[in-house]
Q: What sequence folds into this?
């Protein structure tokens, strides 16, 4: 599996896109995380308008064998969630870096320790 | 002390197939090869191939092998016909379940007991101790067998293409020695999926050859390798109990709704008889909790240990839960107070990490194949 170079990554296995002109970035989980979870069957995403805090839980992903917390990679306001994933959670497995994105956040603060693609690849092994 | 997990004879094959492995009862076993949902649906509609070599085989031979099993287990094994198999249990003196078992009668004086991997040593020790006064030999055959299962509606056709054995004459819960893909095997029509299927006990050295032959024979029918994850959801849909979840030393067969496996009318005494008679009477008059099925109204998944609630009170506990690929919604098996255990009971919920999610009480199983 390859982790896209244009994204940044958290140690909780979330990815973060580059911000757009409004300071908004897209968040998802990595293919490594999706594979570790197995088939995702339910995604509880933060609500639009919620403030999420870097490193803190903001939702959960249920798979066949387990439930896993979703962590916010940055701090900010949720401005959009991916209804396609709510309707069809398997998108997280089939397209974790694309159609399986989870939410968009207007960043107010971000931690200094987000990883580059290469760093994350080394980290996730 | 950590002990490295044991590997089956098919370990290299699993790794070559890209399996996600998991530690299960001290064994490194395939959890899934790709999507566990796809594997599940393959078994329901076509066929799946499983490595179950972690299961523990114990053989009893000798003139009193049947009598020894009658004393050691709750079933009437001496009455079992040669070539047939029976689902049974081994209990302690208090009636608590030590393990659930399948016993195959291989000959007039030969029985093979198949125990769960997690309990195999306990079962071996108990059988050895309990058989001591009988003219029988208890043999640890755990290292002498690999176990490969082919399960699903296409499994008879697949197996027929690689064996001359009379599969049409092989009934459910029967087993016969034969040759499959040139490999000597005990062919049993048993399984843990709720589908028609076969379990093939072979020498570990032959496992790879058999696996490859079945893979090739099943390719056209859509057979796929399947891991333990889908085995768990398959058995859950079929309402089959799993040791450590529905069955424990704290439960009797009657608590689990499986009192029919206890044969009080057999010859002689057996371990647990007195306690089990009391448990049977209790289940008849005042069952404390019953094993029921729960089907979710919503999409959050109940897990083992979650509380079942009704009217603000805790009325039970989930023993197994998973998203059901066949039903398309979460399901669970739970022990629930008798007052809330009738199918259709309103107002039952599962406490899913603080949120009370509505669940419908249903009779088990969730899924039954058409015959």
A:
């Amino acid at each position: 599996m390859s982790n896209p170079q244009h994204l940044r990554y958290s140690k909780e296995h979330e990815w973060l896109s580059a911000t757009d002109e409004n300071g908004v970035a897209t968040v998802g989980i990595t293919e490594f995380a999706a594979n570790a979870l197995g088939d995702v069957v339910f995604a509880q995403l933060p609500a639009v308008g919620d403030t999420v805090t870097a490193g803190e839980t903001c939702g959960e992903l249920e798979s066949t064998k387990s439930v896993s917390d979703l962590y916010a990679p940055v701090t900010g306001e949720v401005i959009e969630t991916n209804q396609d994933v709510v309707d069809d959670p398997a998108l997280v497995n089939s397209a974790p870096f694309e159609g399986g994105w989870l939410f968009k956040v207007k960043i107010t603060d971000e931690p200094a320790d987000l990883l580059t693609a290469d760093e994350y690849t080394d980290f996730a092994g | 002390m950590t002990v490295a997990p044991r590997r089956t004879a098919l370990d290299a094959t699993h790794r070559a197939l890209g399996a996600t492995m998991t530690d299960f009862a001290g064994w490194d076993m395939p959890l899934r090869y790709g999507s566990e949902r796809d594997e599940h649906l393959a078994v329901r509609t076509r066929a799946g191939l499983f490595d179950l070599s972690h299961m523990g085989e114990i053989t009893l031979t000798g003139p009193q092998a049947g009598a020894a099993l009658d004393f050691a287990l709750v079933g009437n094994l001496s009455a079992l016909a040669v070539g047939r198999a029976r689902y049974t249990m081994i209990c302690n003196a208090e009636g608590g379940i030590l393990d659930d078992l399948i016993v195959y009668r291989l000959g007039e004086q030969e029985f093979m007991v198949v125990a769960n991997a997690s309990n195999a040593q306990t079962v071996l020790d108990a059988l050895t101790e309990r058989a001591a006064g009988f003219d029988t030999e208890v043999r640890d055959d755990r290292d002498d067998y690999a176990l490969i299962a082919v399960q699903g509606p296409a499994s008879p056709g697949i197996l027929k293409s690689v064996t001359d054995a009379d599969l049409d004459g092989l009934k459910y819960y029967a087993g016969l020695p034969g040759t499959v893909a040139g490999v000597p095997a005990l062919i049993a029509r048993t399984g843990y999926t709720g589908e028609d299927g076969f379990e093939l006990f072979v020498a570990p050295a032959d496992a790879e050859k058999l696996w490859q032959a079945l893979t090739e024979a099943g390719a056209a029918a859509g057979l796929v390798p399947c891991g333990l994850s889908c085995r768990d959801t398959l058995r859950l849909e079929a309402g089959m109990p799993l040791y450590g979840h529905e069955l424990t030393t704290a439960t009797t067969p009657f608590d689990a709704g499986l009192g029919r496996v206890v044969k009080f009318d057999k010859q002689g005494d057996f371990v647990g008889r007195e306690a089990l008679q009391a448990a049977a009477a209790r289940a008849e008059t005042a069952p404390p909790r019953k094993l029921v099925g729960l089907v979710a109204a919503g999409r959050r998944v109940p897990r083992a240990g979650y509380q079942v609630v009704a009217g603000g009170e805790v009325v039970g506990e989930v023993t197994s839960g998973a998203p059901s690929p066949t039903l398309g919604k979460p399901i669970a098996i739970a022990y629930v107070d008798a007052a809330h255990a009738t199918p259709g009971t309103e107002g039952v919920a599962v406490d899913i990490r603080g949120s009370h999610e509505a669940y419908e009480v249903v009779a088990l199983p969730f899924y039954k194949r058409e015959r």
